Amino acid sequence: MGISLREMVKTLRFHGGLIHSALESIDSECLEIIPIKNSGSFGKQFRHILDVRNSYLDALQSGTLDFYRKDINHLLENNKQELLEELKCVMEEFSSMVLTYSSQKVSDKWIDCTPSMKYLGENFRNISPLQLTGMITEHEIFHEGELALYYRATNIKFPDNWIVWGLV
């Protein structure tokens, strides 16, 4: 038997917690630092994670996954407290909403990914909430890797819970 939706959400929340603790561990001034040439600032990195979380939440609500957001708030990039609150709020809302699907019904709701085919590829025209949860988790993990590079490049101490990556 495969992994349950509840287990997937637990994993997602774990990785979301790593992102949250990463933001909590830096000073607000660090949000403006661009630690690696041709990369965004710390603030842009966290704001991007929030934008993608919002895209996945919108997909659950509307039935369409569209990464081409028109409501990106670049001012958040320099507001640590608001970024943190929004990241936590959207994670909680996504987790709660996806858990409303029972194991039997999780593949009954299909999400149209046509607007985001450029990023996902032809094999992902329609996905279930289970697949959506896997994709958002993969995105969180990817950005944990990017944040690890940012931390190393700036010699910022990793949060204690990053011991899971052997980085403490």
Automatic annotation (TrEMBL):
Sorted UniProt keywords: Metal-binding
This protein's name:
DinB-like domain-containing protein
The answer to whether UniProt assigns keyword Metal-binding to this entry is yes
Taxonomic lineage of this organism? Answer: Archaea, Methanobacteriati, Thermoplasmatota, Thermoplasmata, Thermoplasmatales
User: Is Metal-binding one of the keywords?
Assistant: yes
Give GO MF terms, alphabetically.
metal ion binding
